[in-house]
Amino acid sequence: MGAGGDGDIVAGYSIGNPLDAVSVTIGLALTGTIPLGDAGSFSLTASRLLQAGGNTATFFGVSASNLLPWGVNARRSEQYSGYVSHLVGVKAGSVEIPLQFVLGYGTDNTRDSAGAGQLSDGAFAGIGIGVSENTSVSVSATRTQMNVGMSYAIPRTGLSATLGVMDATDNTDRRQVSFSVAYGF
After folding, report:
1. Phi, psi (rounded to 5 degrees) for 18
2. What spatial distance separates the first Cα and last Cα of the chain, rounded to whole Å?
3. Quick one: pLDDT at residue 1?
4. Residue 54 contacts by C-beta under 8 Å, 6 or more apart in sequence?
5. DSSP-derived secondary structure for 99-147
6. Three-state DSSP class for 168?
7. What percentage of the chain exceeds 70 in pLDDT?
8. Which of 31, 65, 68, 150 could form a disulfide with 43 if both were Cys (CB 3.0 to 4.6 A apart)?
């Protein structure tokens, strides 16, 4: 890894179905891999379908992260957020293109633009679009930074890979590039 590079390991387990009741995900994040396990925290997320009809669906979700932190994570307080997510399929010829819109509010999710790294509470928004059966792209933003990403689901494997750039415009002087691989079963 390059200067300042490191990795995180995140695992989660979901129970329930947001279409019929509530889906709850419990997560564990090991922050940094050098040394492995010296810092981390837990997270809890819940979501529920609010309405569905035709080719649209709207969900509501809440999350709490940095729960029971250890190591350097213990220096930060818990983070909370709530959001509304709306999915819609847009017809384009013989195909339907999936779009997702997200609007929410959370604690400690907005960096100041002076480059000092101070965090404050604030709104966030995002849009994602399926550009092929296995590929999607997204853009999200807070008051001070824009993030972009692309995901590819590897067919018949349960694996997906995501490449993202946080603070893509370097407005807060904290641009970061991330690459992740996920496995779902």
Report:
1. -70, -15
2. 29
3. 42
4. none
5. EEEEEEEEEEEEE-TTSS--EEEEEEEEEEEE-SSSEEEEEEE-SS-EE
6. coil
7. 94
8. 65
Rounded Cα distance, 125 and 102, in Å: 5
Which amino acid, one-letter code, is at 13? Y
Task: Write out the two tokens for 109.
Answer: 């999710």
DSSP string, 28-95: EEE--BTTBTSSEEEEEEEEEEEEEETTEEEEEEEEEEEEEEEGGGGGS--EEEEEEEEEEEEEETTE
Model pTM?
Answer: 0.84
The amino acid present at 12, given as its one-letter code, is G
Residues 6+ apart with CB under 8 A from 74: none
Higher pLDDT, 68 or 115: 68
Q: How far apart are CA 174 and CA 122, in angstroms?
A: 18
CB-count burial class (<10 Å; 0-12, 13-18, 19+) for 21: exposed
